[in-house]
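Go through this:
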Amino acid sequence: MAGLMAAHRFLHLARHGDAVDDGDLSPDGREQATLLGRRLSRLPVAAVHHGPLPRAAQTAAIVAAHLPGVPVHAAPEAGDYVPPVPDPAALPEPYARFLAGVTPDEYAHGAELAAAAIARHAHPDGPPHELIITHSFTVAWFVRHALSAPDARWIGLNAANTGLTTILYRPDRPPALVAFNDLSHLPQRLRWTGFPPGTAPPV
């Protein structure tokens, strides 16, 4: 039984807290991060990885304050980038319009980082619980990979601020999506911050 449990690896991914103009965390974002940290304090998290931008680094620092002794690492592959879209011209019109300003260089850079993220984190080797504080697109890319969906299907998977996604990796079967965008640690007033009025799903 001990060997079986050791082969189960849970990768927890969370979008950063609400931020002011995509910069530092807002007061709401700091509260969201605090509540996420309290929730994760019940788990034996072995490491926290975070994207390099301030909103991700600040979220990780607040969460890590509830995880004494857990190392915190900056990770470029957990940053804010556009994952692969093999054929942008084939996208549904709303998605094509949304990504219209992305340059070929940005797509190429995003593809490199997305591949690095999967290679480093999306496997059963490692401690039973690790956490990545990242961005909505990157969360969606991990979910797409776990479900073996076509590359462009990350588009339209929207992660709320500090929404928690958990993927289970085991050596003898495909990844399992345990939870996606779980907001149960947040009161309703802190859910779906940053979205235009009327666009958030019901909670």
In short: The first strand starts at residue 9 and ends at 15.
